Amino acid sequence: MAKTLITGGAGFIGSHLIHLLVNKYPGEQFVNLDALTYAGNPENLKAIEDAPNYRFVKGDITDFAFLEQLFAEHQFTGVIHLAAESHVDRSIANPMAFIMTNVVGTVNLLNAAKNSWQSDYSGKRFYHVSTDEVYGSLGAEGLFTEETAYDPRSPYSASKASSDHFVRAWQHTYGLPVVISNCSNNYGPYQFPEKLLPLMINNIRHEKPLPVYGDGSNVRDWLWVEDHAAAIDLIFREGREGETYNIGGNNECSNLGLVHQLCDVVDDLLGRAPGSSRKLITFVKDRPGHDQRYAIDASKIKAELGWEPTIGVEEGLQRTAKWYLNNTEWLERVTSGAYREYYAQQYQ
Ligand code: NAD
Ligand code: TYD
Q: Which CATH class is domain 3-190+222-252+292-313?
């Protein structure tokens, strides 16, 4: 029977992916390995935590002995690796945590999978979930393709680029059956409120200043998180071995433009006067080394696997703002740190 290890499943993207997989494939087993750092929140998985095909394991991918034991116990047929330190600003303040989890942790997982599978790689797959930030920063023109040379410029993107190289090295050197995807900025429910959109929604609620870095002209390509989860499912099952797939939302927006749109959506939902939240926008000191523009050419995944984003940014912002405003308790528990008590109660 198929048994897939998902790392980082208590985080933002991982929790959406686990909801999708556990419900869609009742005949398969899914094990979620997560260290529950500040970004991991098992409350995100409440709806499926008792499903017979799901199991949560608390553990750290930097602990190789633990990983070897886990692989020996479960005999996984596949790995979908999402566990990472994921926030650029934190990587600037504390790069070593990123090197440990994103680089050392990924190499540990590669080794654990290789050791467990090397007698028979057939039917096995190691899927590494990565970011478009490995490609560096674009000017006004152009898109990242799968052939774009790597040019990471933040500690976060350098750690993800490094992990991508190790994944490819394990394929070329040891024959490990791997696949990689590089995705643009995700947004949607359950995103930790240090990232742009949930941070802004929370501040709008409390009528606090909305901190836009620099002049707000930096551009990102925004992807609805459930579209990303659907792409991961497809690539895991149907992507060609050894290939890389870029995943994007076809939704390029400047930060300032996006925050303007968000203010208007939230004002409308809260019944505030049009334009009132835009007044909260405050331009703050820029992020050091702030990448100017990311934009994805997602034509390969469309041509090969038929995947396309289904939710545009207008609809996605509506859904996202509604979710956070309807789940203020989740937001309060995450921002106060109270969500950590849930784990203690639930799992001892
Ligand atoms: P997240 O920060 O919300 O979640 C990361 C999860 O990994 C958390 O549950 C955390 O507890 C867990 N984790 C961290 N260190 C660990 C360790 N040492 N051992 C085990 N678990 C650990 O991140 P996310 O936004 O859901 O991103 C998931 C993956 O997707 C990451 O690899 C990220 O680089 C990639 N990605 C994210 C985006 C985005 O916009 N969020 C875009 C492209 C790619
Ligand atoms: P973020 O959500 O941190 O994602 P990433 O840096 O990985 O793209 O930030 C998205 C964009 O928003 C990025 O250009 C930085 C900017 N930003 C702000 O202007 N203010 C903020 O408070 C945050 C968190 C981000």
A: alpha beta
CB-based contacts of 324, cutoff 8 Å, min separation 6: 189, 198, 201, 202, 205, 331
Of 274, 166, 262, 183, residue with least CA distance to 223: 183
Among 127, 156, 190, 245, the active-site one is 156
Q: What is the largest CA-CA distance in the chain?
A: 66
Give the pLDDT score at 335.
85
- Pocket of ligand 1, candidates 82, 98, 225: which has the most ligand atoms within 8 Å of its Cβ, to mutate? 82
Instruction: Give pLDDT tens digits for 137-177.
Output: 999 999 999 999 999 999 999 999 999 999 999 999 999 99
Ligand 1 centroid to 119 CA: how many Å? 30
Label the pairing between strands 210-213 and 185-187. Answer: unpaired
User: Is the pLDDT at 345 greater than 80, yes or no?
Assistant: no
Pocket test of ligand 1: the residue of 86, 104, 154 to mutate, having most ligand atoms within 8 Å of its CB, is 86
pLDDT single digits (tens) 262-292: 999 999 999 999 999 999 999 999 999 999 9
Annotated active-site residue 341? The verdict is no
Per the CB < 8 A criterion, the answer to whether 85 and 102 are in contact is yes
Ligand 2 atom 6 nearest Cα: 88
